[in-house]
Amino acid sequence: MEIMHNLYDELIGFMGLRSLLDMYQTGNYKALLTLNGILGAVSPVLPFLLVIEIIRAIVYKRFKIEDYRMPFFIFIINRVIGRFLSIAAVAFCIGVFEKYALFKTTFTWYWLIYGYIIWEFGHFLYHFWGHRVRLFWCLHATHHTPQSMNLSVSYAHFFLEGAYADCIRTTVCMLAGVNPPLLFFIMFIDGTWGGFIHAGENVVKDGRLGFLNRWILTPSHHRVHHAKNPLYMDTNFCNLLNIWDRVFGTFQHEVPNLPIEYGVSRDVNNRNFLDVYFGEFYYLALDVWKAPGLWNKVRYIFMPPGWSHTGAHKTAVVVRRAYLESLKQEQPIAAPQTTLYETAQQQTN
């Protein structure tokens, strides 16, 4: 019976139903008038969307167990340790850096706008470095190994990635004066939207979301981010607001005639937990071991994935640039026809 009780608690916790059940059992719905009550009431949305996604996939005969098995297995592995590390990282950064803030903000709508722009900058830094620094890529790559897009992918992370991400994002926000209650509210919005943008076609077939595609980062943009197509590599690092991707030139729309290929550039055995979870660490260690000289060993750790001491680099920047150069050479069949290169440039802008 204890096992069943624990499973029930885990299921309720995963579905985000604990706050709602507490209100129902006590009959006290006044909590809905508070911020914590509202957040608790909204928390089941993403888990229920995941259930709907799976049901629709089964109904339309598109369900593949391998699309969901590894992300759920990773979620179970990370269930306790990853969550508490992230909480500790946020608390530590607030305690250390809040006193060095340039100025103080309050929990108001105008500071919310400011705070969210600052949060997105911190998110951009963590995410950009997660793709451009080999060691940080080892923490982030687990999230990119799935070869399809669905809501379960949002649960697939290396257990240390949350702590690394929250250290950077929280430090940036504290130094910029974002007060902690406002930060926690922003983190809730970010986490909810960050989960939703992983929705697959069984929930949101056209991930562009109409006119919103021009103003915020939609599931379509995040599908681009998870792609290994040369054009799409290392783009769309923000989460909700695309301002910093536009500022730093990493913004990329989905190109209609370029189907997305999900995954990472190396061959991954998605049935093997060790390969999915620790594979990048293994190949980094292998490169460091074989590299001649201490300086080259250090550079393998901190240079972008694909960097080589031989000069034969296969980084995302090199691969994307070569791809765009090859598209320039394409000739349209008819004069009025737009080449894929021109389409890509238009979609980027």
Structural class based on helices, strands and sheet pairing: mainly alpha
**What is the residue-averaged pLDDT?**
86
Query: Which descriptor suits the 3D outline?
Result: globular
| Alpha plus pi helix count | 16
Compute the CA-based radius of gyration: 22 Å
Q: Please, how many domains? A: 1
Which helices and strands appear, and what pairs or packs with what?
Elements: H1 2-15, H2 18-26, H3 35-42, H4 45-59, H5 65-78, H6 81-97, H7 109-132, H8 134-140, H9 161-175, H10 180-196, H11 219-225, H12 243-248, H13 273-290, H14 294-302, H15 316-328, H16 340-348
Description:
The protein is an all-alpha fold. It has one domain. Helix content is 58%, strand content 0%. Helix 6 runs parallel beside helix 9, helix 7 (109-132) crosses helix 9 and helix 13 runs antiparallel to helix 14. The longest helix has 24 residues, at 109-132. The termini are far apart. The relative contact order is 0.10. Residues 113-250 form the Fatty acid hydroxylase domain. One of its GO terms (cellular component) is membrane. The chain crosses the membrane at residues 31-52, 72-97, 109-129.
Features:
globular; single chain; 58% helix; membrane; 349 residues; 16 helices; mainly alpha
